[in-house]
Amino acid sequence: MKADSVIPTVPIFGIRVSKVDMAATVSYLTEAVQSRKPHQVITANPIMVMAALDDPGYMKIMQSAELVVPDGTGVVWAANYCHQPVAERVAGFDLLHELLHAGEKYNWKVYLLGSTPEVIQETASRLKSRFPGIVIVGYRDGFFGLAEDDGVIADILEAAPDMLFVARGADSQEPWIAKYKSRLAVPIMMGVGGSFDVISGKSRRAPVAFQKMRIEWLYRLLKEPTRYKRMLALPKFAIKVMREKDKVTKVE
To answer: How do residues 108-164 score in pLDDT, each as one tens digit?
Structure first.
């Protein structure tokens, strides 16, 4: 699938979510790197969709992204419930690894941004070992403010990566990428949330059983009970989809 081709999508409350599977997603983004066309990739879940419905600015970011993939199980369910199914869940953690694997063939350059100094350093080290074909051209932690943005951007531009992975939390990583993506002009710019914590060994991903049952959210809640307020968005999203089934996939 070429980067100048049109990815089939399903609108979920105005956000166009890709309907293709992991393999087609990776193929599409491989073409994006080869064509050097900048792509902001957003891994959408119900919490992000609900945040966008409450915040017009965040909605604009979601709608302007070049590719939105169905990361959250709730997004996959909503598409199926509204009879416009997606091929499969494209989890951000898995997509990151699939892209790195694909990039080994081409010696893609990668820049890692976010998390703590210790986590980002360990993440870079482990990814170098696991994917020797890729080139980690730079990394730095995510503890910087607006005044330091220009310096961070300059460092990324000098490194000229093919892929930029940003781990600063969904409430800040997507807005940061959207704000600077025209200046950065990296073919693949993707927010990866807590992926660096898992890669570095700081935290664990949900066991396979939870993944297969599509309840990774429950594992995270059990591990971090303080997340319960954020998790309230999940039932709210499900109720909204069921109540507004006829409106979910309509494009205004």
So the answer is: 999 999 999 999 999 999 999 999 999 999 999 999 999 999 999 999 999 999 999
**Alpha carbon distance 233, 179 (integer Å):** 26
For position 215, what pLDDT does the model report? 59
Binning the chain into helix, strand and coil, the percentages to the nearest 5 are 55, 15, 30
The C-alpha atoms of residue 85 and residue 20 are separated, in whole angstroms, by: 10
Q: Which two three-digit tokens encode residue 53?
A: 């419905």
Distance CA 157, CA 182 (A): 12
Q: How far is residue 36 CA from its own chain's centroid? A: 19
Pair 94, 198: CB distance under 8 Å: no
Token readout for 56 is 């017009």
Overall pTM surpassing 0.85 (yes/no): yes
